[in-house]
Design a protein that fits this description.
Layout: E1 2-7, H1 11-22, E2 27-33, H2 36-46, E3 50-53, H3 62-71, E4 79-84, H4 89-97, E5 102-105, H5 110-121, E6 126-127, H6 129-140, H7 160-170, H8 175-182, H9 186-200, H10 205-214
Parallel strand pairs: 1-2, 1-3, 3-4, 4-5, 5-6
Helix pairs in contact: 2-3, 4-6, 7-9, 7-10, 8-9, 9-10
């Protein structure tokens, strides 16, 4: 059973998400938080598998809460899925840098949301198509050296295959798509992604996307 904590300052939205999530046989809502501070407290108490996190909330916003969750070693197994009405590039980038494993707009279809929770709970990352486009636009539109926090030299720890796969991750390809493109099994593709994450110190696959752009591994015109 995948245990989910819902964090949103609107009671009606929390109730709607809770009803949807609890309708799935493999998902269970274990708590509801009214803001980021409440979400952080409940994460410590409940240690859910996934936190469905809104961004704009009082007390402590969702991005700050996600960052604190990611920084707590006792919550290493908690995956944050940001669900918001704001899919602007600044929010996407901030969410990924804060350690969120996924980012979806609130206009997502119910079945997509349930699948997203499963994907994130399994340790994979997920971005909505709109969020992915925003992220690509942000980092591929004439990135300046000042933006580069991961340098090309730091990528030398990767094998050629791993560099190739990180590039594909940066372009938004899933493990299955990478596997098909490189004639690998999905399991082998995922293993390469996980090794690259470990070598680069990325908490999850989503942060590989940021690293690919920040390091210049993915450049304008590649997408």
């Amino acid at each position: 059973m995948i245990r989910v904590l819902i964090a949103d300052d609107q009671a009606l939205i929390r109730a709607g998400f809770a009803a949807l999530i609890n309708s799935a046989p493999d998902l269970e809502v274990v708590g509801e938080a009214i803001d980021g501070a409440d979400a952080l407290r409940q994460c410590v108490a409940l240690v859910p598998d996934v936190v469905l996190m809104d961004i704009r909330m009082p007390q402590l916003d969702g991005l700050q809460a996600a960052e604190q969750i990611a920084a707590d070693p006792d919550l290493a197994g908690v995956h944050v899925l940001v669900l918001t009405t704001f899919e602007a590039d600044d929010y996407v980038v901030a969410a990924l840098r804060a350690g969120a494993a996924g980012f979806l707009g609130k206009g997502v279809e119910p079945a997509e949301l349930l699948d997203a929770i499963r994907v994130v709970a399994a340790g994979d990352s997920l971005l909505s198509p709109k969020a992915t486009r925003s992220l690509i636009d942000r980092f591929l539109a004439q990135p300046s050296q000042a933006q580069l926090t991961t340098t090309p030299a730091e990528l030398e720890v990767l094998t050629e295959r791993e560099r190739e796969i990180v590039t594909m991750v940066g372009l938004g390809l899933s493990n299955d798509q990478i596997a098909q493109s490189l004639f690998l099994s999905p399991l082998t593709a995922k293993t390469h992604v996980n090794r690259a994450m470990t070598k680069l110190g990325a908490r999850d696959r989503a942060q590989l996307v940021v690293i690919a752009y920040q390091s210049g591994l993915v450049r304008a015109g590649d997408a």
